[in-house]
Task: structure prediction
Amino acid sequence: MDGYFSLVIFFIAATIVGVALLVINRLIAPKVPDPLQDYPYECGVPLYDKTAQTTLDQKYYLLGLLLVLFDLEAAFVFPWAVVYKTFVSINAGLIFVEMFLFLTILIFGFIYAWKKGALSWQ
Amino acid sequence: MEELILTSIAIGIKSVIFIIGMFLLAAYLTWIERKFAGHVQQRPGPLHVGWHGLLQPIADALKVLTKEDIVPSGVDKVLFYLASLLAFVPAIMILAVVPFGQPVNLFGFEIKPYITDLNVGLILALAFGSISIYGVIFAGWASNSKYPMIGGLRKAAVLIGYEVALGFAMVGPIMQAGTFSLKGIVEAQQGLWFIIPNILGFVVILFAILAETGRTPFDVQEAEAELVSGYNTEYSAMKFGLFPLAEWYIATFVLSAIAVILFFGGWNGPHIFGPISPFVWFFLKLAMMFMFFLWVHWTLPRYRVDQITELAWKVMLPLSLLNILVVAIWIMIFG
Result:
């Protein structure tokens, strides 16, 4: 528990330093209001779209789904990796085959996604 | 209860020392980077503020602190401020699990050159690396302007691709050390460094760090020629200052430290500098790693965003899986 306690204290300290920097900036910086300074950046011409918070065509929806799949896979591989070295002297074949069967099945899925074109920027 | 308060104060002081130290270091890393970039491009770099521009970082810091804090109309104010904090805090949180050396005895006190040594250290580092993606997306969305929006989404696309490869590339050293604790991983490398069977994993991690920290071959979120300045176009003053500070300096520094710990034996090295030799070795390796990223940044042109995401999924992910296979066989043969 001691280690996590230090982590929490470090987090609080980091947040305080970050907030302090923003607050100090706010306090000591001069304020010279100008009608055009709060205008969003737009190459010097009047704003064409009033808002940018609309739907944008971004092309990685399928990649986002694959991220979920492979991050879950990583959650299975990490615990295996920690015990691999101690277990390999007891029963090398079992632990090796076990994980690589799992990985092979996932790699088939990966190849399927690749062939279907899910990995390309479409 | 009293003991708890005393420990909290002690840890708090130590945390503040680490954070302030990281700030000063990051300030001078900007000087190193600008000097390096200058000489790469055959110009002198910072020259006039102090001897060879040595006071330039202080002048820049004061300038950023005293600039007017402009909030453009139409932005989501809460997310706008939260984004710069969310970029900065996770980047510096990784520092909490990075050990800079073994505990040393000084005047009867045991001084630990790290904040905490957890048995899940590496997973925490990965997790904080993933959280910083929110800062980028929030900044892009809250700005309510086209260029930040596109920049933020592009950066998210790149980050999710390299996140997976980065995670799998770290499996090799974990298998050899049998622990997630970064201190444990260094102690497991007393003999041979983990670079030897993990060469593929190391290549993947180099690419992933370049992509995560947005350095040049992968800096599609900035892409000055297309997106003005990417997701921080609408930012000014200290809100802006936290982004490059976190991304280019703090994140590059701590991720270089993690790469050195995973593959180059951390602070292991011949004891030729007396009692401080672990620190000397660690910072020498760290400096070489950091300079490598600067070298790549100021030499290569930029890829297109589709090339980068496809590289992550089609080359880096298979390479990192292959690395797991190579290391598994290596451990079976050599133990």
Notes: The radius of gyration of chain A is 26 Å. Residues 53-122 of chain A form one domain. The mean pLDDT of chain A is 80. Chain A has three helices and no strands.
